[in-house]
Queue: 2 jobs
Job 1
Amino acid sequence: MGSTDIPFRRGVRAKAVYQEPAPRLDKDNPFQSMMERFDVAAEILNLDPGLYEYLRSTSRIHITSVPVMMDDGSLRVFQGYRVIHNEVLGPSKGGIRFAPDVDIDEVKALAAWMTWKCAVVGVPFGGAKGGINCNPHEMSPGELERMTRRYTANLIDVFGPEKDIPAPDMNTNEQIMAWLLDTYSMHVRRTETAVVTGKPFLIGGSRGRREATGRGVMTTTLAAMQRLGLRPEDCTVAVQGFGNVGSVAAQLFSNKGCKIVAISDVSGGYYNAEGIDIAAASAFSEEHEHSLEGFPGAEKITNEELLALDVDVLAPCAKENQITSENANDVKAKIVVEGANGPTTPDADTILNEKGILVIPDILANAGGVTVSYFEWVQDRQGYFWTEERVNRRLDRMMKRAFDKVYDAAEEHGVAMRIGAYVLAIKKVADALKLRGIYA
Ligand code: GLU
């Protein structure tokens, strides 16, 4: 962190603060963790060295300074990123996250994961991701709006309905997408709804988009239960993370008859052997500034205790690097379903596999979000909007189909589902690239 005192605006002495993210330890580096899995799949596919080089490379990296006038009159400059990993299957697609630890390695990994995710589930997009290094919880709505608008304006030539289409991710929501849509539309002098997905329904959003990622988590888990001969009503579930993915997944699991024995958020874990009333937990969190702190329907446990619970299903729906070589041995669940991107490290993967735990990998398990983003983009371009039933029906069908393909690919190659998913995805993008050829 460094700061310079500069005279600014009507005598206010403002501080320009530059945030330098703490360097990541190698074992936590999400790009490396993505590449380790990529390498295993590339070997199975016997991927040509040139194709290997091409598919592991990032197509474009945009880093932009985002200056924002804060409410107190000071100026702050945030670091913004947009990384396009690959566009072979179509325009690039991926969310934007606001978080204090956003850095280039994380955004690069997340962009590549989007490429594989879109390929696994069969939507015609390439992969991208964006982010701003900031602490959105300390910012007012006005500051967030100015930051979002300036980030969008800086990247105006990158975004576009046929080029690169952002969406929500960690700490971003429908309102942020609405500001992005408006800023883009003002610049191009027309309302361009298809430039962003995950926006409010009133301005071109899709029914069911908000619940889509959690719904995909539930659908893929039900498919896994079926393969393992488990009945949802006999299963206990622990969900890590109570944001847009975790809270919806927990509710949908509960609707299917599963018993949710534990949930968590940044304030800690909450356990009730008799089952937690998810609707009550959601209402409580809503009323308490999105925190479960003090939730009366459960006893407090730690995050580590939650991951080690003797449950049938463990759903890490928070963030990267949660199940590691340090705690993977303690995991007792039969199914781990990755609602978050990258919650399991490669070392932990090996341990979970040896324990015979079925891991539904992130690039499959959480692909429901981008699937309904695709539906939203289609609806915007047609100007014709579907009912929630139609959205959910098509989502369930696509997720179930993707699950079966990945499960079968894993069996065929004698590998874990994660590697099966990478094999399918890499092969699809490689085949598409061969058809398109290399423009010289
Ligand atoms: N951020 C979500 C993800 O990681 C959704 C991306 C999108 O809809 O484009 O999959």
Note: The longest helix spans residues 388-413.
Job 2
Amino acid sequence: MKDFDGKVVLVTGGSRGIGRASALLFARRGATVAFTYVGNEAAAEETLKAIEAEGGKGQMMRLDVADTQACAECAEAVAKQHGHIDVLVNNAGVAVDGLVMRFKDEDWDRTLDTNLRSAFALTRAIARPMMRQKSGVIINLTSVVGEMGNAGQAAYSASKAGLIGFTKAVARELSSRNIRVNAVSPGFISTDMTAGISDEARTALLAAVPLGRLGTPDEVAAAVVFLASDAAAYITGEVLKVNGGMYM
Ligand code: NAD
């Protein structure tokens, strides 16, 4: 199905994990996919090759999403180059863990700037072209811990809970211009972000997942692309859980 033919999609953090899987699925469905990477150029090139192998059109851009000015320039460059921009996926994120009483200011700021302020900066920049074209979809990657909290992840949980409030507020603000804003809330997904979890913590986490396994990046990407598609034309302000039942 090539239902994204002619559409332009911007995915942040597309060189690996959920961002990469989403970029590939959008490409497979016909979209032109601009995706960002922050440091690993080789991984980004690999994603670009994979997009092209799907017969898709891709574009890689270096962007530190914690830099608001750079976010604005990136969004404006994509909109200008293609003449329109149809989907923004705010996927890039970091998990800096630590108990709150020992947590450092700079780690708090890095987490909030990367996970939350980035979505604000990119949304602000992209709202103008989307309002002009009277259409668009924005999808924010939140997290199960933004919904239920997690000990040792106060900053990460706060950033992800913030994204849920942000999603709902902007959904209300932009709905009159036919711009939909939704969030996808993954549970425990097999990516680099969860690769460092100890066996003991992994066993405990899996015991809390009714489906009894980790999710895959492709399973999250399927939800992202669904929300971006016309099949979700009447869905806005929603938080779609992809968590194997971990939090209902
Ligand atoms: P990942 O660590 O594999 O990928 C994160 C991506 O964000 C990478 O491409 C990385 O380069 C990019 N990134 C990090 N800091 C950046 C910065 N300053 N500027 C630009 N890009 C930056 O993680 P993932 O599991 O694929 O996570 C994708 C999103 O899904 C994140 O927002 C994450 O919080 C969220 N999420 C993941 C899980 C999980 O279990 N893996 C669960 C819930 C939510």
Note: Residues 12-13, 15-19, 36-38, 63-66, 91-94, 114, 141, 143, 186, 188-189, 191-194 surround nicotinamide-adenine-dinucleotide (CB under 6 Å).
